[in-house]
Amino acid sequence: MLERQEKTALLVLVCVVMVVLATHLLFDAFARPLVAAPYSDEVPDGALVILEGSIEEVKKTATGGHRLLTVNGTRVFLPENVAGNLDLHENESVTLYGIVQTYRGKREVVVASAGDIRVQPRGD
Hints:
By secondary structure, the chain is an alpha+beta fold. The protein has two helices and seven strands, in the order H-E-E-E-E-H-E-E-E. It has a five-stranded mixed barrel. The radius of gyration is 19 Å and the shape is elongated.
């Protein structure tokens, strides 16, 4: 049986975990657009960016099941765990969040989850 102080400590710990989880979810939903910089060549590696535009090219990598997109001339890397959950096509308009990195001398935006990419509905 837990003592009174142990019960209090457990309750405080559960509350802290809930606050951290709620903060994380709220940040993902609302604050990311406030802290993400629009992608440009001047944005340093490691920065969170937002990139909007049309998909010009979709390619699979030779190994690993990853995908490479070209969006407005910018290379976008989708790891296998992200690429497998998406059905993307050329000429679709997208908004995506990712981290800038330089890989083998080429700058790219790395997308961490499928939720970081939104396909814009076509305005037929």
